[in-house]
Amino acid sequence: MTQDQHPTLRRRSLLASLGAAGLAAAAPAAQAAAPKLPLTAATTEGPYYFDALKVRSDVTEGLEGVPLEVRFAVLDVNGKPLPGLRVDIWHCDAQGRYSGYDGQGDDRGLSMQGKTFLRGSQPTAHDGGAVFSTIYPGWYAGRTTHIHFKVRNGTRAVLTSQFFLPDALSEFLYTQLPQYRRASLRDTLNSNDGIALQAGGTTIGAVREEGKQYVATLTLVVDPAARPAIDRPPVPGGRPPHGAGMPDMPGPGRPQALQGSARTAALIPSARR
């Protein structure tokens, strides 16, 4: 009796072919049902943006501060890397001052016009990665610790946002290291910064020690076809460089710096219970 004539063998062959067909049909359905990644939240363009026309990985320009490497992974909502986009970053120095603007420093008396420190752009690699060497940012009144970033597809910005660093680490650096120490206590933390609270979890960077530096990583999920409106609030005094955006400096009514156990509870998530 041949294999085709044997009833048991014929049944096994039929079941195998049906199983293979079922798996082939199920694969596209499973792919279609796979959950999409949430888009990274946009925020105001924030303090002091301008295109410094600096395509570079190292943005420090010799400034003192704790070394920080910022690693972005730029993906679409399906988790596919997006090579060939452009990522910009900009942030303040260890004393809370931005390059390119007047009115910097605690007394608003310093001019940083003509300077381009802590600004730069990188193209995303084949894996969607973009890496910057910088320093850990300082702080200024009314804002928690943050780094601004922008993702461009050609000349069009598809995402403008900020990401936020761990309060406990920031507090340690600001109180223990002379480059960061200030006459006043930081008044705004992640837990009471309106922009950070509105942006939510997609803008919280993960930070770890690696060798003699900290490494901050953040996955950016973007729509490469997006055409979002960019929020550019007015500059609080002084003129920005030509083509610059506007800062998000808050006005009167800024929060008072927390003290004692209330501050500890705000700095350390487990202590908030």
> Quick one: biggest sheet?
4 strands, mixed
Average pLDDT rating: 85
Major sheet: arrangement of strands: 4-1-8-7
Structural class of the helices, strands and pairings? alpha+beta
Shape: globular
The fourth-level CATH homologous superfamily is: Aromatic compound dioxygenase
Radius of gyration: 25 Å
Describe the protein.
The structure is a single chain. The chain is α+β, with helices and mostly antiparallel strands and 273 residues long. It has helices at 7-33, 167-176, 194-199, 260-267, and strands spanning 67-75, 86-90, 119-123, 129-135, 146-153, 156-164, 206-210, 213-221. The strands form 2 sheets. A 4-stranded mixed β-sheet has the order 4-1-8-7, with no helix packed on it. The protein has a 4-stranded antiparallel β-sheet with strand order 3-2-5-6, with no helix packed on it. The radius of gyration is 25 Å and the shape is globular.
Question: What is this structure, in a nutshell?
Answer:
With about 270 residues, the chain is an alpha+beta fold. It has helices at about 5-35, 165-175, 195-200, 260-265; strands at about 65-75, 85-90, 120-125, 130-135, 145-155, 155-165, 205-210, 215-220. The chain has one domain (about 65-270): Protocatechuate 3,4-Dioxygenase, subunit A (Sandwich), CATH 2.60.130.10.
Features:
four-stranded antiparallel sheet, Protocatechuate 3,4-Dioxygenase, subunit A, 21% strand, four-stranded mixed sheet, 4 helices, 273 residues, alpha+beta, 19% helix
